[in-house]
Specification:
The protein is of the alpha+beta class and about 200 residues long. The chain is about 50% helix and about 20% strand. The strands form two sheets. Strands 3-4-5 form a three-stranded antiparallel β-sheet.
Length: about 200
Protein backbone atom coordinates (compact mmCIF):
# COMPACT_ATOMS: atom_id res chain seq x y z
CA UNK A 1 0.00 0.00 0.00
CA UNK A 2 1.32 3.43 -0.91
CA UNK A 3 1.94 5.54 2.18
CA UNK A 4 1.08 9.22 2.36
CA UNK A 5 4.81 10.06 2.53
CA UNK A 6 5.51 8.07 -0.63
CA UNK A 7 2.62 9.80 -2.39
CA UNK A 8 3.89 13.23 -1.31
CA UNK A 9 7.34 12.39 -2.68
CA UNK A 10 5.89 11.21 -5.99
CA UNK A 11 3.72 14.32 -6.24
CA UNK A 12 6.73 16.52 -5.45
CA UNK A 13 8.91 14.83 -8.06
CA UNK A 14 6.14 15.00 -10.63
CA UNK A 15 5.73 18.68 -9.87
CA UNK A 16 9.47 19.27 -10.31
CA UNK A 17 9.49 17.49 -13.66
CA UNK A 18 6.45 19.37 -14.93
CA UNK A 19 7.92 22.69 -13.79
CA UNK A 20 11.20 22.08 -15.59
CA UNK A 21 9.38 20.95 -18.72
CA UNK A 22 7.36 24.17 -18.70
CA UNK A 23 10.44 26.36 -18.22
CA UNK A 24 12.34 24.47 -20.90
CA UNK A 25 9.59 25.00 -23.46
CA UNK A 26 9.26 28.72 -22.62
CA UNK A 27 10.46 31.20 -25.23
CA UNK A 28 13.18 33.66 -24.25
CA UNK A 29 12.20 37.23 -25.25
CA UNK A 30 14.38 38.37 -28.15
CA UNK A 31 15.21 41.63 -26.34
CA UNK A 32 17.34 39.59 -23.91
CA UNK A 33 19.22 37.69 -26.62
CA UNK A 34 22.46 39.04 -28.03
CA UNK A 35 24.45 37.63 -30.92
CA UNK A 36 28.23 37.67 -30.64
CA UNK A 37 30.40 36.24 -33.41
CA UNK A 38 27.58 34.04 -34.66
CA UNK A 39 26.54 32.72 -31.25
CA UNK A 40 23.43 33.65 -29.27
CA UNK A 41 23.83 34.68 -25.63
CA UNK A 42 21.17 35.43 -23.03
CA UNK A 43 21.42 38.44 -20.74
CA UNK A 44 22.57 37.38 -17.26
CA UNK A 45 20.13 39.74 -15.52
CA UNK A 46 17.20 38.08 -17.33
CA UNK A 47 18.38 34.59 -16.37
CA UNK A 48 18.80 35.71 -12.76
CA UNK A 49 15.28 37.18 -12.83
CA UNK A 50 13.75 33.92 -14.05
CA UNK A 51 15.83 32.01 -11.50
CA UNK A 52 14.55 34.23 -8.67
CA UNK A 53 10.98 33.88 -9.88
CA UNK A 54 10.94 30.10 -10.21
CA UNK A 55 13.62 29.02 -7.74
CA UNK A 56 13.73 31.68 -5.02
CA UNK A 57 15.89 29.55 -2.72
CA UNK A 58 19.27 29.31 -4.43
CA UNK A 59 22.95 29.96 -3.85
CA UNK A 60 26.01 30.42 -6.05
CA UNK A 61 29.45 29.36 -4.89
CA UNK A 62 32.71 29.84 -6.75
CA UNK A 63 34.69 26.65 -6.23
CA UNK A 64 37.90 27.74 -7.95
CA UNK A 65 39.63 30.18 -10.28
CA UNK A 66 42.48 29.11 -12.52
CA UNK A 67 44.68 31.06 -14.92
CA UNK A 68 45.44 29.25 -18.16
CA UNK A 69 48.79 30.89 -18.74
CA UNK A 70 48.11 34.54 -19.39
CA UNK A 71 45.44 33.83 -21.99
CA UNK A 72 42.29 32.72 -20.17
CA UNK A 73 40.62 32.47 -16.80
CA UNK A 74 38.84 29.24 -15.93
CA UNK A 75 36.23 29.29 -13.19
CA UNK A 76 34.32 26.45 -11.59
CA UNK A 77 31.14 27.24 -9.69
CA UNK A 78 28.26 25.45 -8.04
CA UNK A 79 24.62 26.49 -8.26
CA UNK A 80 22.40 25.00 -5.56
CA UNK A 81 18.61 25.24 -5.57
CA UNK A 82 15.82 23.95 -3.37
CA UNK A 83 12.48 23.04 -4.88
CA UNK A 84 9.64 21.20 -3.21
CA UNK A 85 11.95 20.29 -0.35
CA UNK A 86 14.53 18.73 -2.69
CA UNK A 87 18.04 20.21 -2.77
CA UNK A 88 19.84 19.91 -6.09
CA UNK A 89 23.07 21.36 -7.43
CA UNK A 90 25.11 21.59 -10.61
CA UNK A 91 28.85 22.22 -10.97
CA UNK A 92 29.68 24.28 -14.03
CA UNK A 93 32.96 25.27 -15.69
CA UNK A 94 33.54 28.22 -18.01
CA UNK A 95 36.46 30.22 -19.33
CA UNK A 96 36.95 33.80 -20.40
CA UNK A 97 39.72 35.31 -22.45
CA UNK A 98 42.01 37.78 -20.67
CA UNK A 99 42.02 41.20 -22.32
CA UNK A 100 45.45 42.70 -22.93
CA UNK A 101 46.72 46.03 -24.18
CA UNK A 102 47.93 45.44 -27.73
CA UNK A 103 50.89 47.75 -27.38
CA UNK A 104 52.15 47.07 -23.85
CA UNK A 105 50.82 43.55 -23.39
CA UNK A 106 49.59 44.48 -19.91
CA UNK A 107 46.28 43.30 -18.57
CA UNK A 108 43.46 45.74 -19.31
CA UNK A 109 41.29 44.80 -16.30
CA UNK A 110 41.91 41.36 -14.83
CA UNK A 111 39.18 41.90 -12.23
CA UNK A 112 36.62 42.50 -14.95
CA UNK A 113 37.81 39.38 -16.79
CA UNK A 114 37.32 37.33 -13.63
CA UNK A 115 33.80 38.71 -13.21
CA UNK A 116 33.00 37.86 -16.83
CA UNK A 117 34.26 34.30 -16.33
CA UNK A 118 32.09 34.01 -13.23
CA UNK A 119 29.06 35.32 -15.13
CA UNK A 120 29.59 32.83 -17.95
CA UNK A 121 29.92 29.99 -15.46
CA UNK A 122 26.80 31.09 -13.59
CA UNK A 123 24.74 31.20 -16.79
CA UNK A 124 25.86 27.69 -17.75
CA UNK A 125 24.75 26.38 -14.36
CA UNK A 126 21.41 28.20 -14.48
CA UNK A 127 20.68 26.75 -17.89
CA UNK A 128 21.77 23.19 -17.13
CA UNK A 129 20.17 22.91 -13.69
CA UNK A 130 17.03 25.00 -14.16
CA UNK A 131 16.41 24.70 -17.95
CA UNK A 132 16.22 28.49 -18.27
CA UNK A 133 16.76 29.68 -21.87
CA UNK A 134 16.84 26.12 -23.23
CA UNK A 135 15.50 27.45 -26.52
CA UNK A 136 18.54 29.70 -27.00
CA UNK A 137 21.11 27.18 -25.83
CA UNK A 138 19.50 24.40 -27.91
CA UNK A 139 18.68 22.16 -24.97
CA UNK A 140 14.96 21.84 -25.64
CA UNK A 141 13.49 18.39 -26.05
CA UNK A 142 10.26 18.52 -27.98
CA UNK A 143 7.54 16.21 -26.74
CA UNK A 144 6.78 13.99 -29.73
CA UNK A 145 4.67 11.49 -27.81
CA UNK A 146 1.39 10.57 -29.50
CA UNK A 147 -1.70 11.68 -27.62
CA UNK A 148 -4.92 9.69 -27.28
CA UNK A 149 -6.43 11.26 -30.42
CA UNK A 150 -3.37 10.32 -32.49
CA UNK A 151 -3.46 6.73 -31.25
CA UNK A 152 -7.20 6.50 -31.88
CA UNK A 153 -6.66 7.71 -35.45
CA UNK A 154 -3.93 5.13 -36.02
CA UNK A 155 -6.16 2.41 -34.57
CA UNK A 156 -8.78 3.34 -37.19
CA UNK A 157 -6.13 3.04 -39.89
CA UNK A 158 -5.14 -0.39 -38.58
CA UNK A 159 -8.77 -1.51 -38.87
CA UNK A 160 -8.86 -0.25 -42.47
CA UNK A 161 -5.61 -2.09 -43.21
CA UNK A 162 -7.09 -5.33 -41.88
CA UNK A 163 -10.25 -4.79 -43.93
CA UNK A 164 -8.22 -4.68 -47.16
CA UNK A 165 -6.07 -7.66 -46.19
CA UNK A 166 -3.00 -5.82 -44.95
CA UNK A 167 -2.94 -7.41 -41.51
CA UNK A 168 0.86 -7.62 -41.50
CA UNK A 169 1.10 -3.86 -42.10
CA UNK A 170 -1.40 -3.24 -39.30
CA UNK A 171 0.78 -5.30 -36.95
CA UNK A 172 3.84 -3.25 -37.94
CA UNK A 173 1.95 -0.03 -37.30
CA UNK A 174 0.95 -1.22 -33.83
CA UNK A 175 4.54 -2.20 -33.09
CA UNK A 176 5.77 1.17 -34.34
CA UNK A 177 3.35 2.90 -31.98
CA UNK A 178 4.63 0.82 -29.07
CA UNK A 179 8.26 1.55 -30.00
CA UNK A 180 7.55 5.27 -30.62
CA UNK A 181 8.85 4.90 -34.17
CA UNK A 182 5.63 6.60 -35.18
CA UNK A 183 5.40 9.84 -33.24
CA UNK A 184 4.26 13.44 -33.68
CA UNK A 185 7.31 14.26 -35.78
CA UNK A 186 6.36 11.79 -38.51
CA UNK A 187 2.65 11.15 -37.91
CA UNK A 188 1.45 13.13 -40.93
CA UNK A 189 3.85 11.44 -43.35
CA UNK A 190 2.99 8.03 -41.84
CA UNK A 191 -0.73 8.60 -42.42
CA UNK A 192 -0.08 9.64 -46.03
CA UNK A 193 1.84 6.40 -46.63
CA UNK A 194 -0.93 4.35 -45.02
CA UNK A 195 -3.55 6.11 -47.16
CA UNK A 196 -1.50 5.26 -50.23
CA UNK A 197 -1.19 1.60 -49.24
CA UNK A 198 -4.91 1.28 -48.49
CA UNK A 199 -5.87 3.00 -51.74
CA UNK A 200 -3.50 0.81 -53.76
CA UNK A 201 -4.72 -2.38 -52.11
CA UNK A 202 -8.37 -1.38 -52.61
CA UNK A 203 -7.86 -0.78 -56.33
CA UNK A 204 -6.10 -4.10 -56.82
CA UNK A 205 -8.96 -6.05 -55.26
Amino acid sequence: METSIMKLKKDAYRGIIDKHDFISQSKTPSVYIENKQGFDYVDEAYMRHVLNKNFPIWSWEIKSYELLGDHSIIVQGRLTIEESGVVRYFDAVASHRIAKNRQSGDYVDIGNDMKSANTDCFKVAVNRLCNIADDVYRKQIKDITLDSKDISKLDDYCKKLCQVGLDDVADKVQQSIDDSKINKSNLSSSLIKLDSLIDKQTKEK
